[in-house]
Amino acid sequence: MSTSLHSLTDHELDAELTRSRAEYDTLKARGLALDITRGKPAPEQLDLSAAMLSLPGDNDYVIDGIDCRNYGELPGLPSLRALFGEVLNIAPESLIAGGTSSLETMYDVLSFAWIHGTCDAGAPWSSAPVKFLCPVPGYDRHLAITESFGIELIAVPLVSDGPDVDAIRELVAGDPQIKGIWCVPMFSNPSGVTYSEQVTRDLLSMQTAAPDFRIFWDNAYAVHALVGDAPEVLDVLAIAAQMGNPERPFVFASTSKMTIAGGGVSFFAGSGENVAWYLGHLSQKRVGQDKVNQLRHVRFFVDVNGVRTHMRKHQQILAPKFELVTTILRREVGDSGIASWTDPRGGYFVNLEVLPGTAKRVVALAKDAGIALTPAGSAFPSGNDPRDSHIRLAPSLPSEAELQLAINGLCTCIRLSAAELVHR
Ligand code: PLP
């Protein structure tokens, strides 16, 4: 469709609706079963780490003078902390290598603050109402964690260089119940936005009414560029210290989208005080980490160049899929004014905006045609996108052939829902 729907006559609109319905019926009749709901790595991406499964091998279990088969060394293997310290631009002593899921680490950290309070303020967060800010669109599982604690979420807009700092400043300065904010600073899920240094500095320096305010800085996609090399990772801990707020960032990351999804290594980082606080509470939960898993990551990557080379291989698999999505969208709905989308330089998602009031309808139409999309609204608090226009696309898992079918089918659904809307 090359003309704006709004410029059509009533007669032309009738014809467009009839044509879109017929196109949709044909799509439905194909009986597709496609899934682009979640940002899972494709099998070929998982194959890139196949060699890691036979590491460290029978006779390789001592590193840094530590027998990885035994209890102990709660902060994780020094060699892995040094390696990923370089990847994440964090001093090894500030970086803890943990279990297999960073989301679990985030849940733990929130639980520790909830039950015990943070290192710099005595009261447990559970002792009074707590609110969190969430830049939207955001990562649904972040939102779900906080919502499961009964924390009230306040949406703040995410713009091209990070969250809207002016809006945030005003909110955090006036309300001591706002204890935290969710941030995915690089190639954000789902917008693909990377925070600028200025936005980062502003977040780390702003005045907050809550003395124990924390930024949950989830750097899940630090080295996950789709085009060229990933930008330099900012040293948030150093900036926070310079700004006089050393305890503000809780940093998280993992190798889930480097090696094995949900079976890699997660990381936590913070100031000396935060790390001591975290380890103190963690030590009530476990005696040590899975250091054999950590060792195989050290053996597999060897050094920071090993990580970069490995991530270029992921890029070679992922970039053509993202290219395919945007090419089809451009061709099918590009100049119709009924959809817009991001062309991300990294991360795992394309952010699709359809006409306000039609995202749920598009997702429902797609579902009925056998194309599973992330539920509309899931990137917003309580699953409620006030404009009902945002849809998250996750192109990584399907093959290119499946993706082609799914996005073409999606465009059919976008056209039909737009025609229905304008025809009303
Ligand atoms: N953080 C973000 C922003 C993510 O997008 C994801 C997975 O999609 C995760 C964390 C999950 O990480 P993990 O597998 O380490 O729990």
UniProtKB/TrEMBL annotation:
Pfam families the UniProt entry points to: Asp_aminotransf
Identification of the protein by name: DNA-binding transcriptional regulator, MocR family, contains an aminotransferase domain
Keywords: Aminotransferase, DNA-binding, Transferase
InterPro entries (alphabetical): AspAT_Ic (IPR024551), PyrdxlP-dep_Trfase (IPR015424), PyrdxlP-dep_Trfase_major (IPR015421), PyrdxlP-dep_Trfase_small (IPR015422)
Keyword Transferase tagged: yes
SUPFAM superfamilies in alphabetical order: PLP-dependent transferases
Superkingdom of source: Bacteria
Sample GO molecular function, one term: L-aspartate:2-oxoglutarate aminotransferase activity
